[in-house]
Amino acid sequence: MEIIEFGWELEIILYLYFLELGGGAFIVSTAADFSGDVHKNVIARLGAYLALIAVILGIVFVALDVRRQVFRFLNMFTTLTSIMMWGTIFLFVFLPPVLITALTWLSYKEDKIGIFLSKIPVINKIVDLFQLTRGQRLAVEVFGSFMAILAVGYAGVLFCSIAARPFWYTQILFWILFVATMSDGVVGVGVMTALAPRLSPKSEKVSTKVLSGLEKIDTPLLLITTALLAVQLALTSAPTEINAILRGGLMLPFWIGVVGIGIVLPLILASYVKVLEKREAPHEKVYRLMLVTFSLVLIGALLLRYVLIVAGQVIG
Amino acid sequence: MSKNEGVTRRKFLKLCGLTSIAAAIGIASSASDVNASPDTYSFMFDASRCVNCRKCVTACKRWNNLKGEVTETEPEELSAETWNVVNEVHKAGNTYFIKRQCMHCMEPACVFGCPTGALKKYPEGPVVVDTERCIGCRNCVVACPFGIPKFDEKVGVVRKCWMCYNRVKSGLPTACVESCPYNALFFGTRDEMLTKAKARKNEINGYIYGETEAGGTGVIYVSSAPLTDLHLPTLSDKSQPTLMVDMVKSVIEVGAVVASAAFALLYFKARRTKPVEKLKEV
Question: Between A and B, how many CB-CB pairs are < 8 A?
């Protein structure tokens, strides 16, 4: 059994996961809004909601991680050389555009969430302040996406620059996390979109084409993540850590969680969805299958972070 | 597009660019501000003389008011309440005793990465945690190649050996050094310690650790066996902050190439894509 000396535990794994999910969802939301395609409107709106929820969850977990000293967070802005300090700045600057974008979409009251919140007078007043025009909204979204790239990029750099941890100290790790972030964003928005008919009073027509489009983007991202992961495991000079992943204590979460649930099963299901689409199967069936596929990728993504972060802390 | 909008976009892009550059420069700025001079205080530990009496462990606990008893076998590991230990290592039929404590590196990774400035390297040599500033992020715990800083769960801060800075400032040696009855532990300027270590190395035909490893450490080890065989990590001569900066630079370089390629791809794709059903105004 491996000896693991934990510096960073579950809270940091969840923080990383939600920050990257939020960042990815925001970028996907911006891209959908930027396209101007009316069919992608739902992706933009639900992506903005997901980004807000995920980023807030991320902040909650990082606050839980520092536990007793959370109120000393203002001390964070003192060391110019600290990657963590820059990450905190990026996260703080990323938060306002995420909040403004989500409030803007809520102010249009196009779904059950918006309508429900509008019934609470105080919230309704706040939300109504954010009725931005499309141009203003796009400006906020583009700035937010830039900050999202910096915030999720920081998370990758934070790990891959730690020279004391040979399994982390590789640029490939940065790219695994970055590509996985994009994949998380796509599938996260996919889950929300597949659930959209239940959220919308107009029983919003989420065409299978929109969901298929998301799946088409996610499949190559999954394949790139897999290839990068293979390179990381094959080329990184960290035999103890890699042994822990492939044959040791991390074997189950890696092979069953990351590879099985997060990569292989979704790819098989995605192929099956294509067959169903060709056969013109009922929309409801395709929706459900896509919801399962996207959800599996999200579970796999969480376990990917778990395996990568724990493996880096195996010391013998 | 109006002229005003163009200017705004340009300003926006400038701002984005400046933010990235500021961050990159901040992180990639050299670690020279934590460099220490050869006159800084250092330890020399002679493993060939240590008999594992553990007087250094007891003295450290007493001077620093740290909890926990010291017995013949305990404590085995460093913790928030144990800032130095002596480990027994068996190698090729021989038994070695290796003292473990903060290495007070010349360019410490913990200081470089600490977001709150709680960790500082003082001109005299010690790397000290200011527990009033520490936020408990544990960046130092994962960044230290020697696994020294330990998180105190009860208080939520990191604690470790501070080279008895209050004694050093008064011209006294550290508590552990003063307590060693077997001449296994010495304290003085780094140059003095290196000279002593090299002489001892020649005497026993042994090995030195800490002269160049991790850019040089504030604890110089001498032993009759290679120290990397005795549970000290194999490290390059580059300091940890230098290695960190190298990685950040390479990520930025590759990132710039990937971003340029992605923009070019999107641009050409956008030119070839048919117009979609546009939103009028939401």
Answer: 150
CB contact under 8 A, B281 and A133: yes
Condensed to tens digits (0 to 9), the pLDDT of residues B72-114 reads 778 889 999 999 999 999 998 999 999 999 999 999 999 999 9
d(CA B100, CA A169) in angstroms, rounded, equals 24
- A182's CB contacts (< 8 A; 6+ apart) are A24, A27, A28, A221
For the segment A44-72, what is each residue's pLDDT rounded down to a tens digit? 999 999 999 999 999 999 999 987 788 88
Q: Rounded to the nearest 5°, which phi and psi values hold at B96? A: -120, 150
pTM of this structure:
0.89
- Closest of B143, B176, B171, B145 to residue B66, by C-alpha: B176
**Pick from B237, B249, B256: nearest CA to B30:** B249
What is each CA distance from A55 to A195, A305, B152, in whole angstroms? 20, 16, 28
Buried b (16+ CB within 10 A) or exposed e, A79-88: bebbbbbbbb
Closest residue on chain A to B17 (Cα):
A146
A47, A151 contact by CB (below 8 A): no
B55: tokens are 């007087």
List B129's β-bridge partners, or say none: B119
Cross-chain Cβ contact A82/B145 below 8 Å: no
- Please count the other Cβ atoms lying within 10 Å of the Cβ belonging to residue B234: 11
* A54: closest CA of chain B, how far (Å): 21
Structure ipTM: 0.89
Here the tokens at position B97 are 């005793």
Dump pLDDT digits (tens) for B226-281: 999 998 999 999 999 999 999 999 999 999 999 999 889 888 877 776 655 555 44
CA distance to partner chain B, nearest, from residue A70 (Å) = 7
| Contact indicator for A128, A117 with CB cutoff of 8 Å | no
* B219-223, strands of its sheet edge to edge: B185-189, B41-46, B219-223, B207-209
Nearest CA in chain B to A73: B135
Q: Which of A162, A168, A174, A209 to mutate to test the interface with B (most CBs of B within 10 A)?
A: A162
Residue from A158, A159, A315, A170 nearest A229 by CA: A170
